[in-house]
Amino acid sequence: MLFISHPDCELHDMGTEHPESPLRIDAIKKLLETSTINEKIKYLEAPLVDKAHLYRVHENEYVDAVFSNAPTEGILRLDPDTSMNPHSLNAARRASGAVVHAVDLIIATSTESAFCCVRPPGHHAERGRAMGFCIFNNVAVGAAHALNTHGLSRVAIVDFDVHHGNGTEDIFQDNPAIMLCSSFQHPFYPNSGATTKSDHIINLPLPAGTDGHAFRNAVEMNFLPALESFQPELIMFSAGFDAHKDDPLASFMLEEDDYRWITNEVKKIAGKHADGRIISVLEGGYDLTALGNSALAHLEALV
Ligand SMILES: [Zn+2]
Known about the structure:
By secondary structure, the protein is of the alpha/beta class.
């Protein structure tokens, strides 16, 4: 398995009180390095993404504005929850660059899986705006690269973050080559997704308090049959771990084993249709201990 990250991702900082903290990367890396799967992992540095890759999923004006307005000192606020410091542009470019790099390596080599341990996260970023801690939609940039550069015709994105993947839906709502499966707490931020009707956008709104049993049942009934009939050539995870019972931002009750379970279920489908190819991209997860343990369970299943 490939593990792709970059020190720049830890320099993006939205303030000491902000839950989307640089410590999140370390919480995962430290556990992984002392785990039994460490010897099966190849650590790589993420390159900076080019504008051309970002233009595929974001409005040119938006991308150009982020680049040209990026602060050289102080803080620039992009939305009520999202800001940039002088390191944020490079961090955001590394975050998307990691996924593009993962797509190139997974498609060109016999490596089956990659984890992009990056921040800022991406799944709330829409075509034309930053939102909810996200600047560029990293998973979408990678999926578009798989279609446009590598000629794939079906890519599935499984988003198990506790928040709806509104940005990914916004970007791919008219593109049936991408299937998005997003499970999320509803009603809850960002208050989208519950009314979507589309064959290739499989939204799964679930109430506050949803535990592992209810989550697994809902995934079994909704995501797995949809993925099976879509026959994806590549599967990507928007891997947010904020549905964990200890997460301070949301009210789901998932545990480490639930992440292991969904990873294994999706892996079976990838094995059948996608030559086992899976690229996982970090999204949310704000309790550092729960984040580390959940990501480790996900990666143990992925390896
Ligand atoms: Zn989230």
